[in-house]
């Protein structure tokens, strides 16, 4: 994967390649939206500085588009968070509730319910 951004991320837990692909896809979508927002903000600033009535009127639509894009980014991050939580819960279901520390003593693993 590009730059292998998820290497070391799972801290010993096996993470499904499909899950990683989903994360990668979501991050690419977020970056695309943020790049679009940068262009929108630049255009809004230029229109504002020009003080031309048509350009100022156009800013209304551009600002709406910017706000919608921000909502989309928030939704994507919320979906990512949910997916991450589900994948971590699914991977921990394979672990036993009682594990042994390196010193051989048993310890109880706390499993969070979501």
UniProtKB/TrEMBL annotation:
Biological process (GO), any one? entrainment of circadian clock
Q: In its keyword annotation, does this UniProt entry include Nucleus?
A: yes
Q: Which GO terms describe its cellular component?
A: nucleus
Identify the keywords attached in UniProt to this record, alphabetized.
Answer: Biological rhythms, Nucleus
Q: Which PANTHER family match?
A: PROTEIN ELF4-LIKE 4 (PTHR33469:SF16)
Coiled coil (UniProt feature) = none
Principal subcellular localisation of the protein: nucleus
- The record lists the organism as Corchorus olitorius
**InterPro entries reported in the protein's UniProt record:** EARLY_FLOWERING_4, EARLY_FLOWERING_4_dom
Please state every residue range assigned to the domain named Protein EARLY FLOWERING.
14-95
Q: Does the keyword Nucleus apply?
A: yes
Protein name (record): Protein EARLY FLOWERING 4 domain-containing protein
Q: Which family does it belong to?
A: Belongs to the EARLY FLOWERING 4 family.
The organism's superkingdom is given as Eukaryota
- Renumbered residue ranges of the record's region Disordered: 87-114
Q: Where in the cell is it found?
A: Nucleus
């Amino acid at each position: 994967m590009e730059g292998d951004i998820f290497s070391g991320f799972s801290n010993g837990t096996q993470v499904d390649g499909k899950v990683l692909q989903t994360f990668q896809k979501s991050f690419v979508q977020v970056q695309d939206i943020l790049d679009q927002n940068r262009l929108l903000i630049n255009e809004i600033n230029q229109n504002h500085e020009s003080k031309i009535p048509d350009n100022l009127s156009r800013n209304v639509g551009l600002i709406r588009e910017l706000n919608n894009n921000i909502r989309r980014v928030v939704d994507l991050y919320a979906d990512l968070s949910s997916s991450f939580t589900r994948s971590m819960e699914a991977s921990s279901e394979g672990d036993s509730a009682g594990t042994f520390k390196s010193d051989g003593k048993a310890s109880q693993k706390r499993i969070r319910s979501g």
